[in-house]
Amino acid sequence: MQTRATADDPELRAGLHELAQQDTAFMRLPFDRAIDRGELPPDTDVGMLVELLVAPLLTRVAVTGLPIDEEFGRRLAATFLTLATAGQASEA
Asked: Cβ-count burial of 51 within 10 angstroms (0-12 exposed, 13-18 middle, 19+ buried)?
């Protein structure tokens, strides 16, 4: 979803996209390494995994205002690992 300001300004939208890519590039590394080690399938959609990891954090900060505390981190990690490895059980 885009705000009206970015929807009407292709240059702003492109700049925000580039900034987002730079800001999340480091988050791809653990997934890429897991693929290299055979811990994730080679066709894993790393971009989607990064989005799935970032979205709950942004929701906490920008939408709900709820804390990002240790308990939330544990729940997020457990849920994320389940999602990230869901297809592996059927492939084994």
From this structure: middle
